[in-house]
Structure prediction request, 120 residues.
Amino acid sequence: MEWAVVLLVLEGIPFLAWIYYLNHKKSMYLLERGLDEPSQSSLRAERRLLNGIFLLTAGAAMILTPLAAKSIGVEAQLSYELLLAGIIVICCGISLIIGSKIIKSRDEKDTSSKSFFDLR
Prediction:
């Protein structure tokens, strides 16, 4: 169990740093081009999407790391607790991804329902 946690931390921290790097790169690109920042709800949806992808991959890593370690000869076993924790983390990631899609669809519906007089 300790190796799985160590591997999860070693894989999770660089992935999280990569996510922050991409977010910074996107905001710098927008500033260089003089574009407006996205609305607050679209930022919230994007943040949920990124967090959902992170949790989904973290849960998959929790389940697949002991199996991969066993294939290269390291003595590791997927315990019931680790499997259950991995499934819960995967479900949390999926729910965040679904939530981001709901927020985006609701925003698209709100902008498309405005009348001509509201747009002037």
Notes: The two ends are 61 Å apart (CA to CA).
